[in-house]
Predict the structure.
Amino acid sequence: MERNKIIDIAKGIGIMLVVYTHTKCYAHDAIYIFIMPLFFTLSGYFFNEERPLWDNIKVKFKTLIIPYCFYFILLESLFIIIHKFFYQNVYFNWEIFLKPYWVVGPMWFLLGLFFTSVFFAIIAKCFKNTYVIIALSILLGIIGYLLSIYKISLPIYIDSALSMIIFYCFGYFLRKFKFLDKLTTKSSIIIGIICLAIYFIGVFFPLYNDPKLNKLPNSYLLFIISACSAIIAFLLLSKFLLRFRYISNLFSFYGKESLIVFIWHCFTFYLFYLLFSIDSKELSYIGGFLITIFALIFSIILGLIQQRYLPIPNLREMYKYLKEEFSYLKR
């Protein structure tokens, strides 16, 4: 599917806010109302309803699960080597492969998004009716909410995937109904102001949420409305930023490379603390801003170097090569 620069800009700003919220930041709870729902929405925006169900699942496995396994091994290996060199007291526990923590912590999103994508693909392919798709997505979202309320945790972030499917569905229908394309400048301003007003109303309520742990606020409906309003305002802002060439190009670049930043930024936090001998618990608000800048720069550098010299292996090509080699040795 052709790249959409508005979505790339939204991803770029979004990933910057994700990095910032993982430090000591001023508006953590207010940003968290919408930031992870935003990425599930943007993923749903590109759902391909024309692709057969099994092909959809295979594509998501290739683009989410294989990178998850690859980057988990890579980052944990680097972390263990560096940490052992400086501290001599590191150990590895395979339990974090299914429950990533610290330098690999943000990678939970890949697991959660995979299951959200699969659940939605099943719904969309089995039920063609728009209202049925929306109703079933809401139903699964409510199940995720109830799991949160009753503190029932499902493995490999399936509970989080259920809770976030409403936003994935939201993104799908934003594209399907060409929401961004149909708005004029005047209607964009009006809708943007209304959505911001709704979002700021939500900010005054206790809507703290943590999708990774599937912790949702009791005011679930208000959370959904507030998050969706913020997302619409976010997309309209991204559309407006197209007018500014250099700013839009910067955000668009980070949007295209958002996966790199997602994967690498906590590892760069670790390097920052190590290089400057800073205790993360004593990080100031200014320090949080500085480490955000550091992470945004060095995540890109490390990610691009890794992609150049150690790309994610193509499993199909590896399988074909090993099969040919094995057949040759048997002769």
